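Notes to self after the Tuesday call (sharing in case useful).
The group wants a holo model before anyone commits to mutagenesis around the pocket. I volunteered. Ligand is coproporphyrinogen III. Logging inputs and output together so the record is complete.
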Amino acid sequence: MKPALKNDLLLRALLCEPTPRRPIWLMRQAGRYLPEYRATRARAGDFLTMCTTPQIACEVTLQPIDRFALDAAILFSDILTLPHAMNLGLQFEAGEGPRFERPVRSAADIDRLPIPDPGRELKYVVDAVALIRRELAGRVPLIGFAGSPWTVGTYMVEGGGSKTFGRIKRLMYEAPRELHRLLGLLARATVLYLNAQIEAGAQAVMLFDTWGGVLTPAQYEEFSLRYLGEVVAGLTREAEGRRVPNIVFTKGGGAWLDRIAAIGCDALGVDWTTDLRDARRAVGAGVALQGNLDPSALFAPPEVLRAEALKVLDSHGPGPGHVFNLGHGITPDVDPERVAVLVDTVRGYAPG
Ligand code: CP3
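Result:
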């Protein structure tokens, strides 16, 4: 029996139910900007060991919850654990970002990709979710996550991060059917992966489509949104007697919010290049919005940071369905004291 949830503001706001105040959590809230994270990482040795050791993933997930009055925890893991489980040989080299030893470069490479059984190859994630739920003891809800098929596909084909996405775009133009085969497979694997997280105790799930915004509108529909739709359609809708809300975040997708909402997701992540007023106007009242403070505002002096946070809060307006967040992840050079100022400002906000 899991303990009752003491703070369910996030779950209610994601379903557009009224809340006494706006919930707040921050993308990458567990990370290198926290000295306690850096200490754990030094002890663990490397990032992948942190992800694959449930005890460490749990410890790091709770660090920002213990330090700040946040309204949600997010599983400490990575979107690349899924391709890691597909035998691509993931490595994180210090200061270099992710690299795959065996990237996907041909139709034969796609043929060889297994659909991981989350209870086996990704058991460490499922175990981490269960452990975090136990350690959270109902303080705040736990968010599970995965990358979008398109975004995970970019890393698999490029072999790591990319500025131009030359390889996957070349595949898109030269052999679109092969790319569709890869993305369809990733969508199926992602449904299994997220549903396993939900079964283990994730109370909301988020899809990170970090690179959807590098596509043309038509390509976005064909190669990213279609597969986001397949994942959302396959998600478990209810667990522990409650709806499990889902959030879809396409960075750079501000012009397509109405089309993203049409796949039937509960909430849309919005980056800082779109005003929440315009976002709300574009999608109407039925879908929640999550965002969208410029992460660089955390470098501003406290009074400027406060003013910027208030602008975001005001821009959504008084209606239900806003979860405060950044427009993308916290950067490692942020002073944790500024995060405290931000959380304090959002919690104290009472619209007049
Ligand atoms: O938000 C959270 O606190 C949960 C943890 C989380 C991480 N990665 C931890 C992480 C989440 C949700 C992610 C998602 C992720 N991972 C995305 C999508 C979101 C986004 O930021 O756009 C992407 C594209 C990745 C892939 C990835 N992981 C890259 C490109 C890198 C290297 C860049 C970097 O910041 O070092 C990572 C590493 C990574 N993932 C770190 C963390 C805390 C840094 C690891 C370290 O050096 O300690």
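Two things stood out.
The first strand starts at residue 73 and ends at 74.
The chain has a mean pLDDT of 97.
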